[in-house]
Amino acid sequence: MPKSKNTFSSWGRRVAQRAVHAGWAWVQRTGSVTAERPGRFRFGAIGEHTRLAFPLGTVFGEPWIHLGSHCIVGEQVTLTAGLMPDLELGPDPILRIGDGVVLGRGSHVIADTTVTIGSDCYFGPYVYVTSTNHSYDDPHEPIGKQWPRMEPVEIGPGCWIGTGAVILPGARIGRNVVVAAGAVVRGTVPDHSVVAGAPARVVRRWTPADGWQPPLRTPAPVPIPDGVTSQQLAALADLDEESAARLAQLDAEG
């Protein structure tokens, strides 16, 4: 025989689930860090409309961390300045993050020495940037006990850093660079290039004389026409493929 359905129990679970979700959303809103609501954090600078999502990852050395305006820092992102908490690091910032930067969920930026991230950079989830690497010069000493090597890291403005990429000490990444997912970057990367692999190498580059070499395999995106409103774009997003194709045909005919 089929089991009788406990309607009250099912209704109670739905109510409890909604309450949990609503409560967690409230915790996320309340726990997020902004210039107006920094909580226990005392960043050297944090610009307007910048938000660090809750829950945060490890954060220390924040007096030497400068965040620009309009930045989005995802959940569980680690931001550190100095080898450990409670160090005196001098008068200058150690970690500088420009305006409009997005750091994806679970990313780490470890600035034991200077790390600079230019404006309008976008990081996918779980990107790892570090200015420190282990040394292994002494074959008789455990690697974790040997003094690490440190080199400044600089990421130019307008870069896209793919999911799971690793940026190693001493990296100098130029302007508007694409770092492919999973790439391991060291050394200097020129402006307007695409790098991939471990270690990363340039697989495509743009220059004023030659354009993109090798040539791009896909056509450039069609820009949104002037005068199109956000409401119209939202309506287009709800169209099914057949309706969208019909509209495109009518537009081409007329």
Automatic annotation (TrEMBL):
Keyword list, A-Z: Acyltransferase, Repeat, Transferase
Enzyme class: transferase
Listed InterPro entries: Hexapep, Hexapep_transf_CS, Hexapeptide_acetyltransf, Trimer_LpxA-like_sf
Domain of life the protein comes from: Bacteria
The keyword Nucleotide-binding appears for this protein: no
EC number per UniProt: 2.3.1.-
Any one GO molecular function term: acyltransferase activity
Similarity comment text for this entry: Belongs to the transferase hexapeptide repeat family.
PANTHER family found in the cross-reference section: ACETYLTRANSFERASE C18B11.09C-RELATED (PTHR23416:SF23), SIALIC ACID SYNTHASE-RELATED (PTHR23416)
Protein name listed in UniProt: Acyltransferase
